[in-house]
Design a protein that fits this description.
single chain; mainly alpha; 3-stranded antiparallel sheet; 10 helices; 7 strands
């Protein structure tokens, strides 16, 4: 029932295309053609899944996050099956993940230190290219890149800016479970879909100076960060930021 479940989620739930794509990848990599995917759900037992989980995790081949993602996929599939009266029981609920071993992960983030920030700001101080200005502005705001790129001139009120949206990379899932090419879309919610994500930030003197420089190049655009009439996107922004770190 995997295809039916995926199309139902696409058409009747608020699940993102990103999640649909990740679940399709996990299904194809870990479940497709396996016993737990080819046996009717009503005939599967906890033992069937335990045996499959052991194959995934032996030798610490899978991280805990990967395991949890696939387990969540199966749980949600069973929830759909129960709702549609295909089964009445989810055997996954009986299985503890403590019996499996996982690949360790180094969770250290590759972030800019305060010293690196100062070096980059000094390096970019006389560079008025739009991407350089965007990077400088980012260092003076507490905002995710997607939030930064979705900012509009109308979000500025005096010395404050209202963060109330984000630019996302999106896809469309076709009826055959393939996906369209990625596209960039602006949405009116913040990561996590919580009200707390919407916020006002004070604009420092330097942030206002950078915004003045940006306005000289983009006085009429809807979005603050535009080049040649087009909104700046993740790909080029991240590529330019990584390049600067290498140069630094």
């Amino acid at each position: 029932i995997f295809p039916e479940w995926m199309l139902w989620r696409r058409d009747y739930t608020s699940v993102s295309s990103k999640t649909l794509k990740e679940d399709t990848f996990n299904w194809n990599k870990y479940l497709k053609d396996k016993k737990v995917a080819t046996t009717p759900l009503i005939d599967l037992t906890p033992k069937d899944f335990v045996q499959e989980f052991r194959l995934w995790t032996k030798g610490r081949q899978m991280t805990r996050k990967q395991f949890n993602n696939v387990r969540s996929l199966i749980n949600n599939l069973y929830a759909y099956a129960i709702e549609n009266e295909i089964v009445t029981y989810n055997p996954i609920k009986e299985i503890s993940s403590r019996q499996f071993t996982f690949k360790p992960v180094n969770n250290s983030d590759d972030v800019f230190t305060i010293e690196e920030r100062e070096i980059l700001l000094k390096y970019l101080a006389d560079n008025n290219d739009m991407y350089s200005l965007a990077i400088q502005l980012d260092f003076y705001l507490v905002a995710r890149i997607g939030e930064l790129l979705s900012l509009r001139w109308s979000d500025i009120k005096g010395n404050t800016i209202h963060i109330q949206g984000q630019l996302l990379t999106d896809f469309h899932m076709n009826d055959d479970l393939t996906f369209s090419s990625k596209e960039h879309v602006n949405v009116d919610h913040i990561k996590g879909n919580t009200e707390q994500g919407f916020r006002y930030q004070h604009l420092t003197k330097e942030a206002l100076r950078i915004l003045d420089e940006i306005r000289k190049q983009n006085p009429d655009g809807e979005f603050i960060l535009m080049k040649d009439g087009k909104q700046l996107t993740y790909d080029t922004f991240n590529r330019r930021l990584k390049q600067l770190k290498i140069e630094e």
